[in-house]
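Quarterly update, task 2.4: zinc ion-bound model.
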Amino acid sequence: MIKEYTSGKTYICKLKHGDDLLESIHAICKEKDITMGSVQAIGALQALNIAYYEQNEKKYYEKAFNSHYEILALIGNISLKDGSPICHAHIVAGDADGAAFGGHLVKGCVVFACELIISELKGPALSRGLDAITGLPLWDDA
Ligand code: ZN
């Protein structure tokens, strides 16, 4: 599947200290009515929570890291699930020693400071539905 889009608005966002990273992204998407787009961010976290998808079990396992981290890279996309914008993002976070941890972004990442850029895409909004092979909510092919 390949779809074509054109660039829409670009949003530069300074997230609030103490807010949940993923929930903040979702709130911005709802406020600005962004249904398709790409996301990138750098910054720092007061707590890190990521998930890993165990392919054999078709199940996500969450792992919480209770220290302070740099957001070395966050990259993701925005589309629709159940009619609402949803951000699918992966994050790499570094600790005081420079060691990096990464995974699927889930709720529980507490913002220390975060500079987020959302690039809106104009075109048909993709919706996520359950993919039987992977067990993941992948983009519908229609
Ligand atoms: Zn993922």
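Highlight for this quarter: The CA atoms of residues 130 and 136 lie 6 Å apart.
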